[in-house]
């Protein structure tokens, strides 16, 4: 009887296997191929999914594949990691990446990349994704890398994906969002980013034997109004709460007005329209000379600076030390590095639009859609540069689109104040000194509670 049962089970299994379509995918394949063998492999997962009809097992060779917002439906299993010698049926050929050093190597892994413009995939009920590296997924909402909509994701590396909500900072599940009783099993989820719930989030699901580590989130600390009634969004980076927008007040917190325009080498507080254009003021804010920023208060390099200056009540002008606290935090967290370079953090602070272009990888102006991982949103407002000619003082509006500078509350000399500088063709946040008469942007920092 036992032999009969085993015999019947083997027949049933053979029938199930024979009823399942097999499609092969390889970087060396072709969209017009049948996909029935490695020699006739499809070239993309998208092509393979388009050819699906009924229960299907899709086998993928190692390599890097662009996968943008694909859907793995009921009855379809996608298995990656097959070496070139694989027959496509021997699971021992699937190379599971076990160390950090292997995660980005297309010769060892099947890498599914959203190219920082879309979620990689949605796995519906009855669908399965296994043995792949899921990376560079990015959505304005939940589930940056993969949305597990009732399906199963197992034996995968889910790394460097983003779930973003620019307005309310409420996006969840940078790596994966699980719903409808989906399952995440035996996966590594690392270096993903979301506003709220950086690694894995969802309404319901089953999480089993996963390694979840080194994921990051950025939240806000409410909004703040200046005396003119302007409302500013905020961002929490480390233990600091920053304005997420450039200051655009015309008055100090006590109601005193700040002179618009003009130049002289006196210590008169002045503000300047960005690029001498009032139409872009809501986006770029005013630039201010150092005298306007400080409002008569002495220089400070303390942390916190204790200088309210031009900032609203409850907020202050950050000192050079407080800016260093910000950049040190970003350098200590790899999610904010470009190409794993600890000094290349400028992109993580710079806005994702508006900069002049650069052909050098990791520069602010290169692949700008990858900017602003910290949500600090530094805009290229340029500077108001003061100068003298034949006894007359002038203001020139320079570097709009290519540079922005922020004043600190710390002076460098009687004539210069310390600054932080972002340039479109640079990957680092520069520090230095500038004439106190020039106009720079201002970001305020919330007082410690």
- What Rg do the Cα atoms give? 27 Å
What's the pLDDT, averaged over the residues?
Answer: 90
Q: What structural class do you assign from the helix and strand content?
A: mainly beta
Count of helical regions: 6
Describe this structure in words.
The protein folds into 2 domains: 19-217, no CATH class; 223-446, no CATH class. It has 6 helices and 35 strands. The chain has a 7-stranded parallel sheet with strand order 1-2-5-8-12-16-20. The longest helix is centred in the N-terminal third of the chain and has 17 residues, at 2-18. It starts with a helix and ends with a strand. Mean pLDDT is 90; it is low at 6-18.
Brief digest:
The chain contains 6 helices and 35 strands. With 449 residues, the protein is mainly beta.
Descriptors:
6-stranded parallel β-sheet; 7-stranded parallel β-sheet; single chain; mainly beta; 6 helices; elongated; 2 domains; 449 residues
Fold blueprint:
Blueprint: H1 2-18, E1 21-25, H2 45-50, E2 56-61, E3 63-66, E4 70-72, E5 76-82, E6 110-113, E7 121-124, E8 128-130, E9 133-135, E10 138-139, E11 146-149, E12 152-154, E13 157-159, E14 162-163, E15 176-179, E16 182-185, E17 188-190, E18 193-194, E19 200-202, E20 205-208, E21 211-213, E22 216-217, E23 223-225, E24 231-237, E25 240-243, E26 259-260, E27 270-272, H3 281-284, E28 287-288, H4 290-294, E29 315-316, H5 320-331, H6 346-349, E30 383-389, E31 392-398, E32 403-411, E33 416-423, E34 430-435, E35 445-446
